[in-house]
Amino acid sequence: MELTPSELVVLGLIIESPQHGYDLEQVIERRGIRQWTEIGFSSIYYLLTKLEKRGFVHAPEAPAAAKGRRVFHATAAGREVATRTALALVAEPHPVPNPFLVGVSNLPLLAEPAYTRALAERLGQVQARITAIEAAASAQSPLALPAREVFSYSLSLLEAERSWLAQRVQVPDGGQNG
After folding, report:
1. Per-residue pLDDT tens for 91-110?
2. Residue in 113, 126, 118, 136 with CA at minimum distance from that of residue 158
3. What's the first-to-final CA gap in the chain, in angstroms?
4. Which string of DSSP letters, residue by residue, matches 141-152?
5. Model pTM?
């Protein structure tokens, strides 16, 4: 892979619209990107520096009135590597580490009532995430295609998990176990 997922997210946001680090933080927060990436606030500038050193972004000198904020722009090389990396990530399935499956694989260690309570708790948290994602998506309407697809895919996965969990804790699908 030519770019890490975090590098691709930051570069993709810059390709979408030239921005400075604070703008990137706002977009990452507003779109809920931290739900599916490992981009911390402090890592944004680190990623920008890496991308700049590799020639994938550039930032003309900021005017004095801009309080030193450098607006980053994608280079042609940045657009090319982002395209190649994005296509590879979309086309090829990759294993995703899932701590939930590690817990379930150790089911013999758990008493059935404790396991059921843990699943019910998870069901409530999944429902809360679905609600939060739906609210974030509707608050930003109309959404650009990339954001719309991310929200749609995320909701599909969470709804599938909600259905699976609801079957296990024997509550109506989509219901909350409070």
Report:
1. 998 887 788 999 999 999 99
2. 126
3. 43
4. PSPPHHHHHHHH
5. 0.76
